[in-house]
Fold this sequence. Notes:
GO biological process, one term: hypoxanthine salvage
Largest sheet: 8 strands, parallel
Structural class: alpha/beta
Protein name: Adenine deaminase
Pfam families: A_deaminase
Strand order of the largest sheet: 1-2-3-4-5-6-7-8
Distance between the termini: 21 Å
Number of helices: 17
Number of strands: 8
Bound molecules: hypoxanthine, zinc ion
CATH architecture: Alpha-Beta Barrel
Enzyme class: hydrolase
CATH superfamily: Metal-dependent hydrolases
EC number: 3.5.4.2
Amino acid sequence: MEQFIKNLPKAELHLHIEGSFEPELMFKIAERNQVKIPFSSVEDLRNAYQFSKLQDFLDIYYAGANVLQTRQDFYDLTWAYLQKAHENKILHTEIFFDPQTHTSRGVPFQLVIEGIIDALNNGRKEFGVSSKLIMSFLRHLSEESAFETLNEALPYRDKIVAVGLDSSEKGNPPEKFERVFDKARELGFLTVAHAGEEGPSEYVWGALHDLNVSRIDHGNRSLEDNDLVALLSDEQVPLTICPLSNLKLQVVKDMGEHPLKLMLDKGLKVTVNSDDPAYFGGYVNENYLAVTKALQLNKDHLYRLARNSFESAFLLPEEKQRYL
Ligand code: HPA
Ligand code: ZN
């Protein structure tokens, strides 16, 4: 099965570029920028990656991102991920970036996005990996800050396929960003949102109704509402599931309890993704392998998951045809 997974062509649809920041590269860039990291070694830092909930992870994830300062840093970060993507037989990837994590520290939007785009262009050239960029708003920040970020993205309208919503879910419901998402859609962006990871199934309804999303990121807690499951299944709304993330953030207590197989059985359009691979212990292949082992998935399941990933991608129909 491991070999089958390795050879299976995949798309990745839920990957935070800041969450692919491996400790080795973090130390290298910190030294280059003469920034101090409050850990004595790579091992020491990795040992700190023990989380009991989403917020534990977010605190350390934002602290890690503080090291990133130059266009070269964002290039190196993205390039390191693309090498991993290529090794994982990812032919197409749609990556999130969190501009507010950087602009709030005085790092210009332009430098962040241009470093990322340079690397994505090189990934296309060197590896043939196609890619799209999704700009994610931090939901713990204000609507006003999200509007400012949307404005900063306007010169790059053609480089960003969609806007998303991430960070601390509980207490920050989708409707907080309804007006920003309305504006983004008016400008031609597609929309996605993290929902039902830690937050309740009502937030999945909110993402669908108030934000008009094309996909739900995570969506695990949708299973608590049968009407919602029926809607997601009828409309074939893609869910970008991240098994190792769910385990590390204790959304599931044990991989054997992961609802992915149940979701497939209910006819939901599920995909498998790595979320923040540097923090959660694996890239896409490790995520496929972990659920395959724990839930006894067969080759038909895996083939379906991979096919779903391409069908759910923000590619034009003629582009998708190359992969299906
Ligand atoms: N959930 C919410 N915010 C995030 C995540 C996530 O899985 N990863 C990075 N930011
Ligand atoms: Zn995520």
